[in-house]
Amino acid sequence: MTVLVFLDPAHPAGRLVDASSPAILATDQGVTRGDGIFESMLAVNGVPRKIQAHLQRLAGSARTMDLTIPPADVWQAAIETAVAAFGAAEGQHSGAAVNGEKQCVVKLIATRGPEGGNTPTAWVQVSAISPALAEQRAKGLDVILLERGYDSDIAIRAPWLLLGAKTLSYAVNMAALRHAHEQGADDVIFTSGDSLVLEGPTSSVLLAHISDDSGVPVKRLITPHLDTGILPGTTQGALFAAAKEAGWELGYGPVTPADLLDADAVWLISSLRLLAPVNTIDGAEIGTAAIRERLSEELSAILATTL
């Protein structure tokens, strides 16, 4: 079940369309060139999470791509229409709940519009969340490292590569996931050509230490530096803000593969999957199952206070 609401000046609350019928031109540059941007957020019991953070990141991606998109209040009106329509349809079909909560995926999509024109195409899509995401949160992931194909300073040297923007050009990311599945793994952590940890195809990377090199207890969270061209994680940012209040030390890379293997726990974190522990990297276990489970429970509880 999917709900589509197009942003349309003639419809201030958004224009609801039939998701089973054609709704976008074949000449749209989002289709022909992947020339567009998107955001994905989780909605729980009809309430989208971190909506302002996602709207701000969408606007940042649009600026990076020199793409004109509707203002935030227009998006918010369309989001409300789409989520309400999905909730009404879900009630008729007895939609599945996750941990007793009604969850769905809200996507914001904007393209450069049909070729030869100057009007962007923008819409909100709401659909059911994949049960596999909840399973990954509970059971964890086996991950492999893959080189992304560029050095960590390429975002500064070549801004036209659009690193750090959430674009529709996800073919490489999806190919990386298919390669991981062929190798018997669940997901990927990208590394740069100069051997720094970047991000996952659809997630941020997070690691934790609960003791220092001399064995003294600590509570430290680390994520890679943003200046490597990775996408700023809205969920990682929310967790860091709450974890600081809970007494955790925070740090931003550089992170190497050796740092991941030396960590007491590693996670892939995103708006939809939330906090998914990494069990193994290239076959090597990260920490212990007991530590991963304990830290995941603690940080998930902290994250829940921010959402």
Estimate what percentage of residues fall within beta strands: 25-35%
How far apart are the first and last residues' alpha carbons, in Å?
Answer: 25 Å
CATH superfamily of the largest domain: D-amino Acid Aminotransferase, subunit A, domain 2
Overall helicity: 25-40%
**CATH second-level architecture of the largest domain:** Alpha-Beta Barrel
Radius of gyration based on Cα positions: 20 Å
- Which structural class is indicated by helix and strand composition? alpha+beta
Mean residue pLDDT: 93
For the largest beta-sheet, the strand count, sense and barrel status come to:
8 strands, mixed
Determine the number of helices (DSSP H or I, runs of at least 4 residues): 9
- Shape assignment: globular
CATH topology of the largest domain: D-amino Acid Aminotransferase, Chain A, domain 2
Low-confidence stretches: none
Number of strands: 15
Count of spatially separate domains: 2
Q: What is the CATH first-level class name of the largest domain? A: Alpha Beta
Order of helices and strands: EEHEEHHEEEHEHHEEEHEHEEEH
